[in-house]
Design a protein that fits this description.
Distance between the termini: 22 Å
Largest sheet: none
Radius of gyration: 22 Å
Strand content: under 5%
Shape: elongated
């Protein structure tokens, strides 16, 4: 039975279906540690690239910049550009910039797993980046549409790859509504069967 591309099929009692609330096959600690180290290194590398792309001054566009606090305005402007290549560059670039959040967060930080957590954490980081851009960096401005597009990218990254990798690397979390079920089922099974 396979639960992810990093888990092993060991057979026997240890490899039971997690969808029924039973324990899954244990992950090899060395593989898990290696994947987390690679994810953390990739996160640091991504942070450097993000800073270089978003926090570098753009003196040539200083007179053209303006803040956008109305969702959809910049996206409409991107779509109205005459050159399709520029539209793809602006929209696709902002979406692609968010994808690593959705892939790396569930792997590097187990507590950040979950769709809502990934989205909220990505939004918080991107709002902070946009605020720094708008207040400190010359030739850059705050744009709420960039936050929306980056968060969309993180959502896509999480749904396509991050969720699967996070589940394969980290053991399943016990949900608050299931915490008592293991004890209850062990008590119902009787002594010696738990």
């Amino acid at each position: 039975m396979r639960h992810g591309f990093l888990s092993k099929d060991t057979g026997g009692e240890a490899a039971r279906d997690t969808s029924r609330g039973e324990p899954a096959a244990p992950r090899p600690p060395l593989v898990r540690a290696l994947v987390m180290v690679v994810a953390l290194a990739a996160t640091v590398l991504f942070a450097v690239v993000l800073a270089k792309l978003t926090l570098t001054p753009s003196y040539a566009s200083e007179s053209l910049t303006h803040s956008n606090l109305r969702p959809g305005d910049s996206i409409r402007n991107y779509l109205d550009q005459p050159a399709f290549r520029d539209t793809v560059k602006q929209l696709g670039g902002n979406i692609a910039l968010g994808v690593p959040f959705g892939v790396l967060l569930p792997v590097a930080w187990p507590r950040a797993r979950g769709l809502l957590r990934v989205v909220l954490l990505t939004m918080a980081v991107m709002v902070a980046v946009e605020l720094v851009q708008g207040t400190v960096v010359r030739g850059r401005a705050f744009d709420i549409d960039d936050v929306i597009l980056n968060t969309t990218g993180a959502l896509l990254g999480y749904l396509l790859l991050g969720r699967r990798i996070g589940r394969a690397v980290h053991p399943p979390r016990r949900r608050w509504w299931r915490r008592g079920t293991r004890r209850e089922s062990a008590a119902a099974a009787g002594p010696g069967k738990a």
